[in-house]
Amino acid sequence: MTAIPLSRLFAVGRPDDAPVADGVTFARFRADVAGNAARLKGCRRGLLVAADGYWGAVGLLALLHAGAEVTIPPNAQPGTLAALTADGAVPVGGDLRPGWESMTLSPLDPETPLTFFTSGSTGEPKRVVRTLGMLEAEALATEAVLGRLAGPTARVHATVPHQHVYGLNFRLLWPLVTGRPFASAMHELWETALAALDAGSVLVTSPAHLTRLAGIAPLPPSRRPALVLSAGAPLPEPAAREAAALLGTPVTEIFGSTETGAIAHRRREAGDPSWRPLPGVVAGRTPDGRLRVGATHVEGGEHVGSDLVEMAEDGGFRVLGRADRIAKVEGKRVSLPEVEAQLRRSPLVADAAVLTLEQLCAVVVPSAEGGARLADLGAFRFGRLLRRELSAVQEPAGLPRRWRFVSRLPDGALGKRRHADIAALFEESALPEITLPEIALPEIALSEIATHRPTAPDVRAVRPLADGVELDLFIPGDLAQLDGHFPGMPIVPGVAQIDWAVMFANTHLGLGIESAQSFQVKFRRVTVPDTLVTLALRHAPARRRLSFEYRCGDATLSSGSIGVEGTAP
């Protein structure tokens, strides 16, 4: 299929029956764009808020052909749209409708501007203007590299939205330029994404999704995609290996930013390869070690970012960290990426983020071994243990003084970590969140704890769910399990919550679980007695898992899953 620049897509055209998206032909697409462009004539500024991929493409091109300035808002939240529409911009999305060819779609000016937003490292929105010609050049450079991996008719699926440069280019614009059909709906769950894939298709995704593949079975050859794309943040090596094993193809990562678009790529077949510039991109290094990029799809032809790099012998580059992440602590220069990397080398740590909030602070995701040590030592002593390990390679200024232990680091839609989200974990209202590893749990005979005191909550209501049951439970204050948890401040222990989930699943779902031999659990808030809570139980026979969630009002107290043997069909 011949590539056609977006500015000339309708002037050059494709066969009327050429597929565009979900059974929509090029003739229908052209009519929908023309009809909506005629309706939008006179619109000075438009906000593209269509969530559906097809209507997002229609809305974008209709606004451009109507002569409107196009803004891609960072999200469609009411507050965001209110701020962006204050100067008269019109949201375009839900009002788009099937059209007819009521106007001629002349070639567009490649210098037509489009406005995007990026949060940067602090979370503050930053307006970025790029031209239609830049987006065209990016799509053509992308095709020069990825076209050999994805067949000319490969269907493009996505788990990312098109409200940012990466999603817009790879989910919509690259397929439109190259003539590949794309799926209209964005897949929010792996179950729907994997069910839609077939051999030779393309999956546009991110680290935020690829680090959440636990419990998914490997795809058979008939459904393995030809190309899996990831961008937004570096993909951890364990996640890259797991994704390749489950999806049947190595992940291809895209490097870039809102300001530059895609500028480099690497295929994660083994280890940590260097980033290779896309065709037409020249990568270099400034005297202070930052990445300098020259490309036709970069504003002004050149951009110097905050990424510290070293040039590789193969013509690529390796990212060493961020220039804006060197902090002064107690008069000493401390590299935050270096402290993070040293923490990750510990067998007790799966991931880490370090920042300065008057003091050096660390947010750590414990490994399976670390989770067991954390449960045994407690947060304070576990943090001291990690400080002792770091002290072998860091001066005192580089040793975090405040710690948070979480099940996963907060990230944005693409897995990019923002300073504001990490810092929020240290606010007074923020509660630590811990996920214990899968471990063997000895069977508990509650009758041996006490025979004269209650060992389970009172059931006040039972409601069926499509895949399980929901119960309202009152937890009495004289529970036998409260002994030792804790004097003067009673807390319902996690082992009791797991046991109750098993007991009620056996009673109301007929599962017959003898005991929770393997489980995962996440504690968000403490559960206290003399409280009415809701327990939701959901059974997934195909996955051999029972999921549970304890809630108090709208707040989740704890959640997790328990292995259930012998239930697969």
Automatic annotation (TrEMBL):
TM regions (residue ranges): none
Keyword set includes Heme: no
Gene3D superfamilies in UniProt: 3.30.300.30, Hotdog Thioesterase, N-terminal domain of ligase-like
Location of the AMP-dependent synthetase/ligase domain: 106-274
Keywords of the record: Ligase
Residue span, ApeI dehydratase-like domain: 468-560
Name under which the protein is recorded: AMP-binding protein
